[in-house]
# Entry
Amino acid sequence: NADFVSVETLCKGSWFALEQCGRLLRSAAEVFDSGDHATGVALAMLGQEELGRSRILRDMAKRVAAGEAFRPEDIQNACFDHVVKQRAAVLGITLNDPPEPFRSLIKEKLGLTPGTEEYRRANDKLDEVIKAKARRLPQDRHDMRTSALYVDLDDDGTTWNRPSALSRARAYDVISGAVNDYAGQYDPVRIGMIEEEFPPMAAARTAI
# Structure
């Protein structure tokens, strides 16, 4: 039916979005290297949104292959919300130089004997904190994008967000995390896994 979006079209869109993610991340690195750390972060967060779009479109292609039907407006609506795309792009939690409470929980766990009740409780606490961070991460990334782009007045009415004040170290961590997520999807092994898991993805990439 011409009114519905095909599996092939959705698969192509998924590849195009992954390609755009890579382009944005390359630009993010170049802008960061030029000294504009905040704008580099904004580009990296847009790149992660495109990674999320790629995964959303791949999932919708699978659903169409299984018998569902989507019109163009359904696809547009599914990829409209920034936080929804960021949620689809969450592939894992990276803890470089972990802040509290991660540091204390990791230290506690390392000091215990695996297999003991104390170790299990410490592990459960750490897992819950990591899960909570994962739940917050999509909104945190969206907020990072806006704070890296816009001068805005804080809720207290006295302090301005100033993108240029974003530290180089913080920007580096954010951009590096985005690049790692992209690399985890785009490396040859992962690409092969994606195509083996859902063969129409292989056909679509060949047809591009």
User: Anything to note?
Assistant: The chain has a mean pLDDT of 90. Strands lie at 152-153, 160-161.
